[in-house]
Design goal:
Largest sheet: 7 strands, parallel
GO biological process, one term: D-xylose metabolic process
Shape: globular
Protein name: UDP-glucuronate decarboxylase
Oligomer: single chain
Pathway: Nucleotide-sugar biosynthesis; UDP-alpha-D-xylose biosynthesis; UDP-alpha-D-xylose from UDP-alpha-D-glucuronate: step 1/1
Strand order of the largest sheet: 3-2-1-4-5-6-11
Strand content: 15-25%
Helix content: 25-40%
Bound molecules: nicotinamide-adenine-dinucleotide, uridine-5'-diphosphate
GO molecular function: NAD+ binding; UDP-glucuronate decarboxylase activity
EC number: 4.1.1.35
Order of helices and strands: HEHEEEHHEHEEHEEEHEEHEHH
């Protein structure tokens, strides 16, 4: 389906007088920061399949070369090892900014959200590229409004252990809007809710990857606290569709991108048991501080303005992820034997 995706010059071109880099070209040049990570690598697959030229910028902090290795040798694909905290010069039409240490185990003390976003916005400003920020549902903190609409300002602890991530993303949203208002940069903001799927980090401590890996390894699934806290889990291909619809569309956002199906952690464990291993067991562990009790996106805005909604249910998505996890866990075990 290549006909629908022709190159469109930036809307603010007339206002800024900037010449789009890709004038006369049909193919877009797209940067994906964090493109060798979980979400980024699936986005890269879809952009390449659509016919774009894709440059991945990644420092392999949590990403893996294996996630994009199938594009090596493709002249339309380029991988740059680079930390977005440092400036970079490139010429592209669109910037998907995903680079970020995304899990609680990895994100502490890291200024990527602020410095990395600033550099990518500076880049977008200089070259007149459209910039998309992947923000997070964590900007809502431990929400006092349920489900969360984009108009909700959030309930966030500025000095808590999670604040480097959630306040970092809030700052990134602020910078994004400032570059839009002040410098006319074309921006898009996605607030992503919990997403799972193949290529997720095996060991970053998130609940879906923990439960699935534990079930495959025949270990008990670790339920934190009483397991009654809720989350809404989105399959990665739905998210990628949403990100691309947002980038191509006319609306800045922010848009919630998530699956509104809400599950307690105990229910999630039950679905893993049903779809992956009927003999799986659970064990209770102490919960971490500041753990949000409930989270569920209100996606009416994305539905009406982006014509997007998720299609894959948890029961459909989990087995697809499990197939990839089984392979990787098997390879790991074989590696240990060597
Ligand atoms: P991930 O850890 O798999 O991907 C992040 C990528 O960024 C990795 O490849 C990592 O190596 C790279 N990276 C980190 N710091 C970098 C730096 N300083 N310079 C260059 N590259 C760097 O995580 P993901 O789940 O794919 O998340 C992608 C984006 O989506 C993140 O911005 C994250 O905050 C956002 N998000 C994800 C979820 C989710 O559930 N997966 C939810 C909300 C928001
Ligand atoms: N930047 C970058 N690549 C570019 C343009 C800018 O990495 O092509 C970085 C730049 O080094 C700076 C940040 O983006 O740290 C913000 O740039 P901007 O021009 O907005 O701010 P200034 O440099 O004027 O403070
Ligand atoms: N959680 C759990 N067992 C685990 C890992 C996480 O019960 O092994 C819980 C955690 O306490 C939280 C929920 O699962 O309530 C989602 O955690 P995750 O880190 O995946 O995402 P986030 O808290 O960022 O939404």
């Amino acid at each position: 389906d290549t006909t629908a995706h022709y190159y469109r010059p930036p809307i603010n071109q007339a206002a800024t007088g900037r010449v789009p880099v890709a004038i006369g070209r049909k193919r877009r040049r797209v940067v994906v920061t964090g493109g060798s990570g979980f979400v980024g690598s699936h986005l890269v697959d879809k952009l390449i399949a659509r016919g774009d030229d894709v440059i991945v910028i990644d420092n392999f902090f949590t990403g893996r070369k294996e996630n994009v290795a199938h594009h090596f040798g493709n002249p339309r694909f380029e991988l740059i090892r680079h930390d977005v905290v440092e400036p970079i010069l490139l010429e592209v039409d669109q910037i998907y900014h995903l680079a970020c240490p995304a899990s609680p185990v990895h994100y502490k003390f890291n200024p990527t959200n602020v410095m990395g976003t600033l550099n990518m916005l500076g880049l977008a400003k200089r070259i007149g590229a459209r910039f998309l920020l992947t923000s997070t549902s964590e900007v809502y903190g431990d929400p006092l409004e349920h489900p969360q609409k984009e108009t909700y300002w959030g309930h966030v602890n500025p000095i808590g252990v999670r604040s480097c991530y959630d306040e970092g993303k809030r700052t990134a949203e602020t910078l994004t809007m400032d570059y839009h208002r002040g410098d006319g940069v074309e921006v898009r903001i996605a607030r992503i809710f919990n997403t799972y799927g193949p290529r997720m980090c095996l060991d970053d401590g998130r609940v879906v990857s923990n439960f699935v890996a534990q079930a495959i390894r025949k270990q008990p699934m670790t339920v934190y606290g009483d397991g009654k806290q809720t989350r809404s889990f989105q399959y990665v291909s739905d998210l990628v569709d949403g990100l691309m619809a947002l980038m191509e569309g006319e609306h800045i956002g922010p848009f919630n991108l998530g699956n509104p199906g809400e599950f307690t952690m105990l229910e999630l464990a039950q679905v893993v048991k049903e779809t992956i291993d009927p003999s799986a067991t659970i064990e209770f562990k102490e919960n971490t501080a500041d753990d949000p009790q409930k989270r569920k996106p209100d996606i009416s805005k994305a539905k009406s303005m982006l014509n997007w909604e998720p299609k894959i249910t948890l029961r459909e998505g989990l087995p697809r992820m499990a197939a990839d996890f089984r392979n990787r866990i098997l390879n790991e075990d074989e590696g240990k034997g060597n």
